[in-house]
Automatic annotation (TrEMBL):
It comes from Francisella adeliensis. The keyword Transferase applies. This is Glycosyl transferase. Keywords: Transferase. One of its GO terms (molecular function) is glycosyltransferase activity.
Length: 341
């Protein structure tokens, strides 16, 4: 009998890493709705190659191209032919998730919540729909504090476990060496309006002694490149396996998103020893200790962001590095696994 049937979107690397750790302690079956997506930061972002657990796939192709009716038919068969204690659905945004929580008893239904209070409506029709979904859920695995605030705003009063993350990052070995501050900033992620890159570019255009490297693709790339000064470099998509060199070659990681459910790249940057400048609207902002291992910024306050970036000198940078060294990604990940046990 399975402890959990976990229904999730696609086999992104950080989810696969998490499920591999869970499978060491639990008997799990992971059901991937699709094998790939049209929206990913690199070619090796998704893969089934490293799955050390039982899994099934509802659609072998892009998530956006699946036929929902066929997915639900396959899901129905899985539920009928499997013995399991609980199901864990990866959100409330898909018909497959709705079918699952109404097909099973409430006592069996668990949900992973990766939406925060900032990107989810808590009143009106949208909130009512979420409340109906939650009425069928007996336990929620919430990523962090901003996610817990959303549950409270929606009046959810049942069992909640804080996971402190959305998955487990890759942790390639690297040689730790002393860092010097060369005013080299790095961004990794989608090039979309919600990431607030236009504001950051306007700031760095005026900070000629700083450089900003932007890694990723998206609909705003051409517009952002045209708006950028010579101290801003666009590298396009970089494979996960090659990101290590980028983290080690830069000094400070910056994530200025207007909203961000979590921001796994914050964990990646900390793992490689980088101080962080992160929006306080990001879920992962809770692992940044303001002024200790990085800074929290208001994404709408350009003057504040400019002052924060400008305030970092060699002495402050070394203090931030000391703060980063005190953060243990392994401890955080262990707590994430424990939340499911």
């Amino acid at each position: 009998m399975y402890d959990y049937i976990i229904l999730t979107h696609i086999p992104v690397f950080y989810k696969v890493n998490l499920y591999n750790e869970l499978a060491k302690k639990l008997n799990i079956l992971v059901v991937f709705i699709a094998t790939d997506t049209n929206e990913k930061r690199s070619a090796d972002f998704t893969s089934l190659d490293n799955c050390n657990f039982d899994y099934k796939v509802l659609y072998d192709g892009s998530f956006q191209d699946r036929q929902t009716f066929n997915s639900i038919k396959k899901l129905r068969t899985i539920f009928k032919t499997s013995k399991y204690k609980s199901i864990v659905v990866g959100g409330w945004d898909l018909p497959e998730f709705w079918y699952s929580v109404f097909n099973n008893r409430k006592s069996k239904n668990c949900m992973v919540l990766e939406s925060t209070i900032y990107e989810s409506k808590t009143n009106g029709i949208s909130a009512l729909i979420k409340k109906i979904f939650l009425s069928r859920v007996s336990k929620v695995f919430a990523s962090g504090d901003l996610h817990l605030k959303l549950l409270k705003a929606l009046g959810y009063n049942e069992n909640v476990k804080i996971t402190q993350g959305v998955g487990i990052i890759n942790k390639p070995a690297f040689e730790k060496c002393s860092r010097q501050y060369n005013r080299k900033f790095l961004y990794v992620g989608r090039l979309s309006e919600i990431k607030n890159l236009e504001s950051i570019i306007k700031i760095f255009n005026k900070l000629e002694d700083c450089t900003l490297t932007i890694i990723g693709e998206g609909e705003q790339r051409e517009f952002l490149e045209k708006a950028s000064a010579k101290n801003i470099c666009f590298k396009g998509s970089v494979a996960n396996s090659e990101l290590k060199q980028e983290f080690l070659a830069h000094d400070v990681f910056i994530l200025p998103s207007k909203i961000e459910p979590w921001g796994l790249v914050v964990e990646e940057a900390l793992y490689f020893g980088m101080p962080i400048v992160v929006s306080d609207k990001c879920g992962a902002s809770e692992i940044v200790n303001d002024g200790i291992n990085g800074y929290l910024i208001d994404p709408c306050n350009r003057q504040m962001i400019k002052e924060v970036v400008s305030s970092i000198d060699e002495q402050k940078y070394q203090e931030l590095l000391d703060g980063v060294s005190q953060f243990s990604i392994d401890t955080k990940d262990s707590e994430q696994v424990k939340a499911y046990l």
